[in-house]
Design goal:
The complex is a heterodimer of chains A (about 140) and B (about 140). Chain A has about 140 residues and is α/β, with parallel strands linked by helices. In chain A, about 45% of the residues lie in helices and about 25% in strands. Chain B contains five helices and five strands. The chains are: A alpha/beta (about 140), B alpha/beta (about 140). At the A-B interface, helix 1, helix 2, strand 1 and helix 5 of A face helix 1, helix 2, helix 5 and strand 5 of B.
Chain lengths: ~140, ~140
Amino acid sequence: MARKRRRSHTIAGELNLTAMIDVAFQLLAFFIITTKPVDVVTNLDVFRPSPEKQSQDQSPAKIIRVTVFPDGFTINDRGVDSRQLTSLLGRLAELDTTQTVLIQCLNASPHGKLIELLDICSKLKLTNLSVVSSGGA
Amino acid sequence: MRKQREEEYLSGNLTAMIDVVFQLIIFFVATVNMQDKAYDDRITLAMAPNGKVDDKKDPRQVAVDIDSKGTIMICKTPLSSGLLTTILKKARADSRGYDVPVLIRADTLTKHEAVKKVMDACTAAGIWKIKFTALKERSG
């Protein structure tokens, strides 16, 4: 009896951590396996042209008109590819970054093309972007 | 007898506490990313590496998903443009005239026609500011 008591005295104050560590490692492994890295997303702000604003139109020189076609872009009615568009917009943005970019997007154009243009505008710090849709193909 | 009481004092039973702690951990891990679950995974976002990341999330924000076939969805529920207009009008009325941020998450291959429907619904609801979601960085 006396021997038994002495043995239990040595255990007192210790905690058997084996089971807890096992579970903790199981959880850790589970979360490492199931967690997938999160994509970094960005939000590109645009405005819809408000009907009230149309009456007090800006002078045409202050507006950059860009049209998005399924296979390319036009800037002020001049057909360009995305590299030329970047350089042309860059030159215009150097003058004034607050000028309105009126983006006209054709119904048949893929959304990726519009995002590409908005990305270019974001890079050039053009913030006044207005998106309108046009039906013609 | 005194010795035994001392032992009991030293070896407090932690099992219940550890159980509760694990329960809490599992609860928070399971509930923390509910917002992301509302987005449709089948939508492949277009890349926009130059866009800026805004960390603050507006609780009034309405996220509209558009898949590559042009189906308009909110929280994976397909909607007609009429219903979307009603929802956006309600959201605007609830925010007492303040701007309701509308987030359009469209697939890179979506025809602009479908995006136009959502933008027209926003215009009909009196919302002029729209955000397009794109990928800044693809993971892995």
